[in-house]
Amino acid sequence: MTSSPSRRAILRGKVNERPHPRPIGALAPMAFEDACTQCGDCARACPEEIILRDAEGYPVLDPRAGACTFCGACTEACETGALIAGQPFPWRAAAEPNCLSLNGVQCRACEDQCDSSAIRFRLLPGGSAQPLFDDTACTGCGACVAPCPAGAIALHPFNPTEPAQC
Protein backbone atom coordinates (compact mmCIF):
# COMPACT_ATOMS: atom_id res chain seq x y z
CA MET A 1 0.00 0.00 0.00
CA THR A 2 1.31 3.38 -0.84
CA SER A 3 0.11 6.75 0.18
CA SER A 4 0.94 10.17 -1.14
CA PRO A 5 2.43 12.63 1.32
CA SER A 6 0.28 15.45 2.60
CA ARG A 7 0.90 18.97 1.36
CA ARG A 8 2.13 19.86 4.82
CA ALA A 9 4.70 17.01 4.70
CA ILE A 10 5.99 18.23 1.34
CA LEU A 11 6.40 21.77 2.62
CA ARG A 12 8.25 20.50 5.69
CA GLY A 13 10.59 18.35 3.59
CA LYS A 14 9.16 15.10 4.97
CA VAL A 15 8.05 13.53 1.69
CA ASN A 16 9.27 10.02 2.54
CA GLU A 17 8.13 10.01 6.15
CA ARG A 18 5.54 7.31 6.86
CA PRO A 19 2.28 8.71 8.24
CA HIS A 20 1.32 7.62 11.75
CA PRO A 21 -2.21 6.74 12.81
CA ARG A 22 -3.93 9.42 14.83
CA PRO A 23 -6.32 8.50 17.65
CA ILE A 24 -9.74 7.16 16.80
CA GLY A 25 -12.07 9.83 15.41
CA ALA A 26 -9.31 12.11 14.13
CA LEU A 27 -10.24 14.67 11.52
CA ALA A 28 -8.46 14.72 8.15
CA PRO A 29 -4.72 15.48 8.57
CA MET A 30 -4.69 19.24 8.00
CA ALA A 31 -7.96 19.82 9.85
CA PHE A 32 -6.72 17.68 12.73
CA GLU A 33 -3.48 19.64 13.07
CA ASP A 34 -5.41 22.91 12.94
CA ALA A 35 -7.88 21.80 15.65
CA CYS A 36 -5.55 19.88 17.97
CA THR A 37 -3.96 21.95 20.73
CA GLN A 38 -1.58 19.14 21.76
CA CYS A 39 -3.07 19.27 25.25
CA GLY A 40 -2.65 15.51 25.83
CA ASP A 41 -6.18 14.94 27.16
CA CYS A 42 -6.71 12.08 24.70
CA ALA A 43 -3.52 10.32 25.82
CA ARG A 44 -4.38 10.68 29.50
CA ALA A 45 -7.88 9.30 28.86
CA CYS A 46 -6.68 6.23 26.94
CA PRO A 47 -7.02 3.17 29.23
CA GLU A 48 -4.70 1.17 26.95
CA GLU A 49 -1.99 3.87 27.14
CA ILE A 50 -1.27 3.60 23.41
CA ILE A 51 -1.58 7.29 22.52
CA LEU A 52 1.82 8.97 22.40
CA ARG A 53 3.14 12.19 20.85
CA ASP A 54 4.86 12.41 17.47
CA ALA A 55 7.95 14.55 16.83
CA GLU A 56 5.77 17.65 16.51
CA GLY A 57 3.78 16.98 19.69
CA TYR A 58 0.57 15.72 18.08
CA PRO A 59 -1.06 12.53 19.40
CA VAL A 60 -0.48 9.28 17.51
CA LEU A 61 -1.49 5.69 18.17
CA ASP A 62 1.40 3.35 18.88
CA PRO A 63 0.18 -0.21 18.27
CA ARG A 64 3.57 -1.51 19.43
CA ALA A 65 2.37 -0.59 22.92
CA GLY A 66 -0.88 -2.55 22.61
CA ALA A 67 -4.16 -2.82 20.77
CA CYS A 68 -6.88 -0.22 20.55
CA THR A 69 -10.20 -1.35 21.99
CA PHE A 70 -12.10 1.48 20.27
CA CYS A 71 -13.56 2.45 23.65
CA GLY A 72 -13.92 6.10 22.63
CA ALA A 73 -12.34 7.55 25.77
CA CYS A 74 -9.97 9.66 23.66
CA THR A 75 -12.80 11.21 21.63
CA GLU A 76 -14.80 11.94 24.79
CA ALA A 77 -11.78 13.68 26.33
CA CYS A 78 -11.11 15.87 23.29
CA GLU A 79 -12.66 19.29 23.85
CA THR A 80 -11.22 20.92 20.70
CA GLY A 81 -13.12 18.85 18.13
CA ALA A 82 -9.96 17.31 16.65
CA LEU A 83 -11.37 13.88 17.58
CA ILE A 84 -15.01 13.18 16.78
CA ALA A 85 -16.92 10.02 17.69
CA GLY A 86 -18.19 7.98 14.77
CA GLN A 87 -15.42 8.84 12.32
CA PRO A 88 -14.20 5.78 10.37
CA PHE A 89 -10.73 4.54 11.33
CA PRO A 90 -8.76 4.67 8.04
CA TRP A 91 -5.89 2.34 9.02
CA ARG A 92 -5.37 -1.37 8.38
CA ALA A 93 -2.60 -3.83 9.19
CA ALA A 94 -0.17 -5.09 6.55
CA ALA A 95 3.09 -7.05 6.56
CA GLU A 96 6.45 -5.67 5.50
CA PRO A 97 9.00 -7.71 3.47
CA ASN A 98 10.94 -8.66 6.62
CA CYS A 99 8.04 -10.90 7.75
CA LEU A 100 9.48 -14.17 9.11
CA SER A 101 6.88 -16.30 7.28
CA LEU A 102 7.84 -14.70 3.96
CA ASN A 103 11.43 -15.66 4.70
CA GLY A 104 10.82 -19.35 5.42
CA VAL A 105 10.46 -19.20 9.21
CA GLN A 106 7.31 -20.69 10.73
CA CYS A 107 5.55 -17.83 12.50
CA ARG A 108 1.88 -17.08 12.97
CA ALA A 109 2.08 -14.64 15.89
CA CYS A 110 0.00 -12.01 14.10
CA GLU A 111 -2.71 -14.47 13.10
CA ASP A 112 -2.95 -15.80 16.67
CA GLN A 113 -3.62 -12.29 18.03
CA CYS A 114 -6.23 -11.23 15.46
CA ASP A 115 -9.68 -11.49 17.09
CA SER A 116 -11.41 -10.55 13.83
CA SER A 117 -9.70 -13.37 11.89
CA ALA A 118 -8.48 -10.88 9.28
CA ILE A 119 -5.10 -12.60 8.79
CA ARG A 120 -4.51 -15.87 7.00
CA PHE A 121 -1.50 -17.42 5.32
CA ARG A 122 -1.06 -18.76 1.80
CA LEU A 123 1.63 -21.41 1.43
CA LEU A 124 4.27 -20.61 -1.17
CA PRO A 125 6.79 -22.86 -2.91
CA GLY A 126 9.96 -23.37 -0.89
CA GLY A 127 8.34 -23.57 2.54
CA SER A 128 7.47 -19.94 3.08
CA ALA A 129 3.99 -18.52 3.61
CA GLN A 130 2.52 -15.19 2.58
CA PRO A 131 0.40 -13.36 5.17
CA LEU A 132 -2.84 -12.10 3.67
CA PHE A 133 -4.75 -9.32 5.41
CA ASP A 134 -8.47 -8.95 4.77
CA ASP A 135 -9.04 -5.20 4.76
CA THR A 136 -12.79 -5.63 5.19
CA ALA A 137 -12.36 -7.76 8.34
CA CYS A 138 -9.39 -5.85 9.78
CA THR A 139 -10.42 -3.14 12.22
CA GLY A 140 -6.98 -1.54 12.46
CA CYS A 141 -6.83 -2.24 16.21
CA GLY A 142 -3.14 -3.16 15.98
CA ALA A 143 -3.32 -6.30 18.14
CA CYS A 144 -1.12 -8.04 15.55
CA VAL A 145 1.64 -5.39 15.62
CA ALA A 146 3.26 -5.83 19.06
CA PRO A 147 3.57 -9.64 19.07
CA CYS A 148 5.40 -9.73 15.71
CA PRO A 149 8.96 -10.81 16.58
CA ALA A 150 10.37 -9.19 13.43
CA GLY A 151 8.47 -5.91 13.75
CA ALA A 152 7.09 -6.62 10.28
CA ILE A 153 3.47 -5.60 10.87
CA ALA A 154 2.43 -1.96 10.64
CA LEU A 155 -0.75 0.04 10.24
CA HIS A 156 -1.11 1.67 6.83
CA PRO A 157 -3.59 4.21 5.50
CA PHE A 158 -6.64 2.46 4.10
CA ASN A 159 -8.80 3.73 1.28
CA PRO A 160 -11.87 1.48 0.83
CA THR A 161 -12.26 2.63 -2.78
CA GLU A 162 -8.89 1.10 -3.78
CA PRO A 163 -8.84 -2.60 -4.77
CA ALA A 164 -7.68 -5.03 -2.06
CA GLN A 165 -4.05 -6.17 -2.09
CA CYS A 166 -3.91 -9.98 -1.87
From TrEMBL:
[4Fe-4S] cluster 1 binds at residues 36, 39, 42, 46. Its main location: cytoplasm. [4Fe-4S] cluster 2 binds at residues 68, 71, 74, 78. [4Fe-4S] cluster 3 binds at residues 138, 141, 144, 148. InterPro entries: 4Fe4S_Fe-S-bd, 4Fe4S_Fe_S_CS, NapF, PSI_iron-sulfur_center. Signal peptide: none annotated. Keywords: 4Fe-4S, Cytoplasm, Iron, Iron-sulfur, Metal-binding, Repeat. Its cofactor is [4Fe-4S] cluster. SUPFAM superfamilies: 4Fe-4S ferredoxins. It comes from the Bacteria. It is found in: Cytoplasm. Residues 27-56, 57-88, 129-158 form the 4Fe-4S ferredoxin-type domain. Belongs to the NapF family. Interacts with the cytoplasmic NapA precursor. Could be involved in the maturation of NapA, the catalytic subunit of the periplasmic nitrate reductase, before its export into the periplasm. This is Ferredoxin-type protein NapF. It comes from Rhodobacter flavimaris.
